[in-house]
Design a protein that fits this description.
heterodimer; A: 315 residues; mainly alpha; MetI-like fold; 13 helices; 75% helix; 0% strand; B: 363 residues; alpha+beta; Rossmann fold; OB fold (Dihydrolipoamide Acetyltransferase, E2P); 2 domains; 6-stranded mixed β-sheet; 27% helix; 33% strand; elongated
Chain lengths: 315, 363
């Protein structure tokens, strides 16, 4: 017994003697550093550097094409002043807002409504869920392409408008009053499932005994919805609203495919305008400034929503 | 009158029978506790009475009114949930006023009633808090308060003390009993804790596998269990069971090697004679009805001490008898150590004999 213990001890001593000097520098701290370095480098080059560089450029009148060989010329806040006093900029933000608000509100109401309907057991629930989720899983470009196909002058939508309701065909994508709503329709079609999914997650987390207690307490349906369902689901709904608002705010791909900003500039969103300034006219400095203005707006908006979220949590 | 009559209640979940043919009458102002192990169907019974579950068969009558098909709201019962089921975003006051608002009472009356009940439950200082800011015991009181403000005649309680810590549970036991007395309301209470049942109930109903085993006062359930299940379920440590047979000379012979035999009195023997079981039976004796002694007398059974468990107010001694272990409750100052050989004697008046196949009590 004593012999084997001794032998074991000498063996570990030998073992340690071999290992220690070679790898002793390789501490947990070094392991952490070596795992983090590649990510940090990648982040530095594709995210942090462009961020800082574009911030710098937004204070210059540099153009990536015209001034490729000259150093950026510092012009201070001129880009910002010009953009903020330009009516066109405001027009683009109004267009964007007129898209974001109805799209997110309708998606929320529809998605939450569908979630309420689906929040029970019935046969075929799984199949219906899968079908409802399909729009969300498609590429936005694909969605926009086939909606453009359906919404064009002789598309399937107008076929129904004319033959079923006996109305004049609607210029879905080229009427200045209809086209913005067409963007909303497509976005609602695509993103309602997202609202539904998150609502459903919230609904299924409401413990059943609360409803039972309410039933015994003689609470009506509205009472139950207003005082149990809604407050319990609210935090998740707000998160869904934040996601969708931020996403809808930067609408670009669908609008490009569906209307291209037209007719005229009536559906040109802020993102599209930014693209036009930075890569159509190649005013890189001004484009950078516009990018930062957009960033400030969405950050402010998101902060308001997050504050609302925290308010529901603390009470 | 808030009597409750449950008649031949059956409930299946898919192919599993949760309740079969349960008939139970609860008298007005009675504290009846439904006791049974987990999965016995206790909560299902309660939920059927509340209307949260639809029975497959049977009827439920309250005050002579058939309520089987009514919705929970129409039954006018109060339900206290194991999880308390407080509305998380409402204050204590709002939680308690909720059932009254649903009944459209005037604001002054609501305030008056809530304040009165809150004072009674000693939660009047917490009315502006939210459930998350309360301790388990306080939440429990709020849940009780929410049930009480409606002044229902029938309270349904689903293991309301289970989630409380031990000290609080003991405290709340006494308080619930006092409340029930004070309100003169009918309590239908479900628990798997026999101490709760013994200490609070006017009568205990014991349920196992969806079948009602016995309904009687705590004393009778303890001293005259209807069958093997009740005998084994009620009492801690549980009753000792040994195989036995009854011979023609009216003697109960316990154990394989005629460990102990006892001649039956005339009246007891008549009971045995009426019973048409075979000779196979089970002898049951409670740990406190066994006596241990250091001085071996001739009519004592000799057995070896297996384990000694001192519990403070009493000591449990496990005696080994062949392959059997017999638990004996002795005074805390009784001295014994593992391996000691002691004399053991059964109380010749306080034992039971059960039919082995049916489990029914014979004596």
């Amino acid at each position: 017994m004593a012999d084997t213990q001794l032998a074991q001890r000498t063996r570990t001593a030998q073992f340690e003697g071999q290992i220690r000097p070679r790898f002793s520098w390789f501490t947990d701290r070094w392991i952490a550093i070596s795992f983090l370095t590649p990510t940090m480098l990648l982040l530095l080059f594709i995210s942090i550097f462009p961020l800082v560089w574009s911030l710098y450029l937004s204070f210059t009148d540099w153009s990536v094409i015209k001034d490729a060989n000259t150093a950026p010329q510092w012009i201070g806040t001129a880009n910002y002043l010009e953009l903020l006093t330009d009516n066109r900029t405001w027009q683009r933000f109004v267009v964007t807002g007129q898209f974001v608000v109805p799209a997110v509100v309708i998606e929320l109401l529809l998605g939450f409504g569908i979630a309420l309907l689906l929040n029970r057991k019935f046969t075929g629930r799984g199949a219906i869920m899968t079908l409802l989720l399909i729009p969300m899983m498609l590429s936005p470009i694909v969605v926009a392409l086939f909606w453009r196909f359906m919404m064009q002058g002789d598309g399937v939508l107008n076929y129904y408008v004319v033959n079923l309701f006996g109305l004049e065909p609607i210029l879905w994508l080229s009427d200045r009053y209809v086209a913005p709503w067409s963007l909303v329709i497509v976005d609602v079609w695509m993103w309602t499932p997202f609202m539904m999914l998150i609502s459903l997650a919230g609904l299924s987390a409401v413990p059943n005994y609360l409803y039972e207690a309410a039933a015994v307490d003689r609470a009506g349906t509205w009472f139950r919805f207003r005082h149990i369902t809604l407050p319990m689901v609210m935090p998740l709904l707000l998160i869904a609203i934040i996601f969708r608002t931020m996403d809808a705010y930067k609408l670009f791909d669908q609008a490009v495919v569906l209307t291209g900003g037209g007719p005229g500039r009536f559906t040109q969103t802020a993102s599209m305008y930014l693209y036009d300034v930075a890569f159509g006219q190649f005013n890189t400095g001004e484009g950078s400034a516009l990018g930062y203005i957009m960033l400030i707006v969405i950050t402010a908006l998101a902060n308001l929503l997050i504050r609302a979220l925290n308010a529901t949590k603390s009470t | 009158m808030a009597g409750l009559v449950i008649e031949k209640l059956s409930k299946n979940f898919g192919k599993t029978a949760a309740l079969s043919n349960v008939s139970l009458t609860i008298k007005d102002s009675e504290f009846l506790i439904l006791l049974g192990p987990t999965g016995a169907g206790k909560t299902t019974t309660l939920r059927c009475v509340a209307g949260l579950e639809k029975p497959n068969q049977g009827t439920i009558e309250m005050d002579g009114r058939l309520i089987t098909k009514l919705s929970p709201a129409e039954r006018d019962v109060a339900f206290v949930f194991q999880s308390y089921a407080l509305y998380p975003r409402k204050t204590v006051f709002q939680n308690m006023s909720f059932p009254l608002e649903a009944r459209k009472l005037s604001q002054t009356e609501i305030e008056q009633r809530v304040n009165e009940i809150a004072r009674k439950l000693a939660i009047d200082g917490l009315l502006n808090r939210r459930p998350a800011q309360l301790s388990g015991g306080q939440q429990q009181r709020v849940a009780l308060g929410r049930a009480m403000v409606r002044q229902p005649r029938l309270f349904l309680m689903d293991e309301p003390l289970t989630n409380l810590d031990f000290t609080l549970r003991v405290e709340m036991r006494a308080e619930l009993k006092r409340l029930q007395n004070e309100l003169a309301a009918t309590f239908f209470y479900v628990t798997n804790d026999q101490v709760e049942a013994m200490s609070m109930a006017d009568r205990i109903a014991i349920l196992d596998h969806g079948v009602l085993q016995q309904v009687d006062t705590p004393e009778n359930v303890y001293n005259h269990p209807a069958n093997l299940f009740v005998a084994g379920f009620v009492g801690n440590p549980r009753m000792n069971f040994l195989d036995c047979r009854i011979d023609k000379n009216a003697r109960v012979i316990v154990g394989k090697d005629d460990l102990w035999r006892i001649s039956l009195t005339r009246s007891l023997f008549e009971k045995v004679a009426q019973h048409k079981g075979g000779g196979e039976a089970v002898f049951g004796i409670r740990p406190e009805d066994v006596e241990l002694s250091n001085e071996a007398e001739t009519d004592m059974i000799r057995a070896e001490v297996y384990v000694v468990e001192p519990l403070g107010d009493r000591t449990i001694v496990d005696m080994r008898l062949g392959s059997e272990i017999i638990k004996v409750k002795v005074a805390p100052n009784f001295e014994a150590a593992s391996g000691d050989s002691l004399g053991m004697q059964f109380d010749s008046e306080r034992f039971h004999v059960f039919d082995k196949s049916s489990g029914e009590i014979i004596i």
